[in-house]
Amino acid sequence: MAKGLIQLIVDDLKIHQSDVILIENNDKFLYREDIIKILKSNGIEIVYGTNIQQRIQFELREKDSILVLLSQDNTSYLEDIKNTSKAVLFFFNDYLNGYHIPSIINLEINVLEKLFIKKQIVMLNKNETLNAIANAQTESDIKSTIKFNVEEFETLLNTSLISENKNWSVISRIISNAILNTIGTKQFEEILINVNKANEIFQETLNSFYQQTKVSSAVKKPKIVSKILDYLNINYPVSKIALIVIDGLAFWQYELLKTQLPETKNEEVIYSWIPSITQLSRQAIFRGGIPHTDYKQGPANEEILWKKYWNAKGINDFEIRYNHETINLLNLDYIKRFAIVFKDLDEKMHSSTDYNDLLKLTENWIERSNIISVIDELKKAGFTIFLTTDHGNIQAKGWRGLKGREKLGTNKSGSRSERHIEYTEKWLSDEFITNNPELKDSVVMEDQAIYFKSDLSFSNKETLVTHGGAHILEVLIPFIKINNG
């Protein structure tokens, strides 16, 4: 199968066999945000900006990825960077020659790929190029009305899953895109089958590496929600920081929201706390560490945790603000640490029968929540904004509800999740599993808690949307930086 435009660029960058590449790119194609995101998903991190910003990224670069430093002058780097890097020139017309380059360089990627396939033997002038673009866009519009290509999705997902070094950030995006494009169609069930296969492999990863994630470094990025505050404190000690937490936002729902967010943002995928109940995972965010089992969930206690963390870092009470539901955007000049919790999307999630319901409710929430206006106001006030969630969600199937003696002592955690129960005594949880051996391969037992790692739930409903377990859709969540520039 012939390579596409983007894949060819990826391969050309990787063929240099250098961990750091200095690219002089005067046509600025590689500066495009969509190109940067795609290359990042292929293990190539692109950085541009001041020499200091590039120096920081150079020092903190990942060992298993390629760092590209972009500029219009490759001679401006310090000797130690030059000595450990490879300097190259990048010209967009090397890949799409035959066209009037100024007319095509900012086109959408799907249109560029169409033009790339139809290679030109002779050089087209501007008008001829515009005609070629119109034809390519028409073909692209026709293609967008065709069913989602499940076979392509399966191939892409399986290729990612058999990789020795699985990139769960990429896999999460592949899955989220497929879910978002098939909700409400006959293909959706096929997608869920593949998602659950991916989840089985994800559970193996959790068994091997999740405990290490809890104690991971927060210098480069937070790998788990409990490290978010440490990451902010280490990397943005003097910046005005706003942390927005959208309760129960799955990654596919973020894909809906992102189209309305500012273009200047960085996207990461991190872990929720497991089990993915609010009492633990959101507590982990605001505590900035391992959650306590005796903690009582509520906005008053979250505010106490938020202020306690920043007080310990030398931030005064009057410089810290916490909002829950009602948002106060007045008098922000003196605020250095601002936390905002949107909780009503989680309520819409719990009221949904399936993802078809939740899709419509999410679209409605994005419009009615005023979150985009809030972000705009925070940017104007000079905040660097971070957006995340405490956990995702899953369209689950009902195993059955608890009955009789099984309910005895199950209210310890206060969780309303139908994928998580916690008994007051260990013998009660042991007895439950002994009496229901068919659940053994579908659940995790942790002290007195029992939670699902499959797509089942403690419910009599045929389908429902909930959270509280360890499924990939609940655990892999967005962590987004929105720059204030």
Please state the structural category: alpha/beta
Rg from alpha-carbon coordinates: 24 Å
The poorly predicted ranges are none
Strand order of the largest sheet: 6-16-9-5-8-7
Counted up, domains total 2
Instruction: Give the count of helical stretches.
Output: 19
Approximate helicity band: 40-55%
Q: What would CATH call the class of the largest domain?
A: Alpha Beta
The protein's oligomeric status is: single chain
Distance between the termini: 42 Å
Q: Which word captures the global form?
A: globular
Please provide the count of β strands.
Answer: 16
Instruction: Enter the CATH topology name of the largest domain.
Output: Alkaline Phosphatase, subunit A
Largest sheet: 6 strands, mixed
Topology:
Elements: H1 5-14, E1 20-24, H2 33-41, E2 44-47, H3 51-59, E3 66-71, H4 79-83, E4 86-89, H5 101-104, H6 109-117, H7 126-144, H8 150-161, H9 168-182, H10 188-214, H11 228-235, E5 241-246, H12 251-258, E6 265-271, H13 278-287, H14 299-311, E7 320-324, E8 337-342, H15 344-350, H16 355-368, H17 371-380, E9 384-388, E10 394-398, E11 420-422, H18 426-435, E12 443-446, E13 449-452, E14 456-457, E15 463-466, H19 472-475, E16 476-482
Parallel strand pairs: 1-3, 1-4, 2-3, 5-8, 5-9, 7-8, 10-14
Antiparallel strand pairs: 6-16, 9-16, 10-15, 11-13, 12-13
